[in-house]
Amino acid sequence: MCVRVVIADDHGVVRAGMAAILSAAGFQVVGEAEDGSAAWSLLRQLRPQVAVLDASLPRLSGLEVARRVARRLPDVRTVMVSMYDDPAWRTEAARAEVTDYVLKGDGPQALVEAIQAAARGEKRLDSARGEGLPLTSREREVVQLIAEGHTLRDAARILCRAPATVRAHKASAMRKLKAHSTNALVQAATDAGVIRTPRAREVPGV
Fold first, then answer.
1. N vs C: which end of the chain shows fewer Cβ within 10 Å?
2. Is the pLDDT of residue 192 over 90?
């Protein structure tokens, strides 16, 4: 059986490299996405057997996409590819029903084997244990969008939430991370490994 795969990573070179590796291994790469929102749309449209998701995609993180897949696309298995070798990230991935968690430095064979196992219905990621990340899923999504330069109004539109709800998530994140400004919030979330900033720059006030 030819396993159909969708790849989501915000770096084009990484996507191209993964696509080449997976095609050479006999998988059929049916779609690619550069952010979480596009990945979620592709997955609903294409319904592949396996989704390969970067953990910290722009707009919607790979964790949030995996949660949506688990709730609404139960026939799709998810493999997470991450730069974060951190128990908290693995715990969050397990809670999102991710089948395996592959570090970007693990090498091509680790990814191939993770996808093969996912396609067979195997879950190789240990069940969630210990503490997860310091922010809730929605708080992380709001802070990630702020880090990307979106206003709270933009974030509300992207997340399909009321602006007041998004403001409340931002305020909660600031309390948890003890941040007293938008820039301090983004820096604290980055330092904690909660989000990945696209590049070093000042974040506009939102």
1. N
2. no
CA distance linking residue 190 with residue 146, whole number of Å: 12
* Identity of the residue numbered 52: V
Domains assigned to the chain: 4-119 (3.40.50.2300), 137-191 (1.10.10.10)
Residue 154 C-beta-side C-alpha neighbours within 13 Å:
13
**At 173, which helix (H) or strand (E)?**
helix 163-177
* Residue-wise pLDDT tens digits, 125-180: 876 566 777 888 889 889 989 998 999 999 999 888 899 999 999 999 999 999 99
Is residue 206's pLDDT more than 70?
no
**Contact partners, residue 47, CB within 8 Å, separation at least 6:** 73, 75, 76
CA proximity to 140, closest of 76, 66, 78? 66
Position 24: which residue type?
Answer: A
Asked if residue 7 lies in contact with residue 54, where contact means CB atoms within 8 angstroms, the answer is no
181 has a pLDDT exceeding 70: yes
Q: Cβ neighbours of residue 145 under 8 Å, at least 6 residues apart?
A: 59, 154, 155, 158, 159
**Spatial distance between the Cα atoms of 19 and 170, rounded to a whole number of angstroms:** 36
Please provide residue 56's backbone torsions phi and psi, each rounded to the nearest 5 degrees.
Answer: -120, 60
* H or E segment to which residue 187 belongs: helix 182-191
Rounded distance, CA 89 to CA 131, Å? 9
